[in-house]
Write a structure and sequence with these properties.
GO terms for molecular function: DNA-binding transcription factor activity. With about 150 residues, this protein is mainly alpha-helical. Helix content is about 70%, strand content about 10%. α1 packs across α5.
């Protein structure tokens, strides 16, 4: 219980930071998650909606709503795969790359401010311990280096 409560409280603090920064640029946290996932994918900044949904733990309906809003805002585009008509891709537009960069940097700065009072060695120890905990729990993303 103690570990779960502390992790939950820390996650809440981080979510507050993300909410504040994303709201400042007119995005929801889910929209930020999609933009940052596409940015992390690297050029051409494209992923399949199903990969986005599973990686972000969103339902297919949830991801569809988020993608619709982002497309209306002109930060993503959807296009069919030229080799397989059953496959669609979600891609950042040039404006989307700019927005994603701006909001990811803002969130990163805000998280750095949150953790600024914490000594560097304590941060490094927590990173290592939490990584090991996730590996022990079978988290594949952590095992891949995320």
């Amino acid at each position: 219980m103690e570990l779960g409560k502390r992790i939950h409280r820390l996650a809440g603090r981080l979510q507050e930071v993300v909410r504040a920064e994303t709201a400042a640029v007119g995005l929801t946290p889910a929209e930020f998650d999609v933009l940052s996932a596409l940015r992390r994918a690297g050029p051409p900044f494209a992923l399949k909606p199903s990969d986005l949904a599973s990686g972000l733990l969103l339902t297919s309906g949830g991801i569809s709503n988020v993608l619709r809003r982002l497309q209306q805002d002109g930060v993503i585009e959807r296009e069919a795969d030229s080799a397989d008509a059953r496959v669609a891709w979600v891609r950042l537009t040039p404006r989307g790359v700019t927005v994603a960069e701006r909001v990811v940097r803002a969130v990163t700065r805000a998280q750095a401010r949150l953790f600024a009072p914490v000594p560097e060695d304590l941060q490094r120890a927590a990173i290592g311990d939490l990584r090991q905990l996730l590996i022990e729990l079978g988290d594949e993303a952590v095992q891949e280096g995320v």
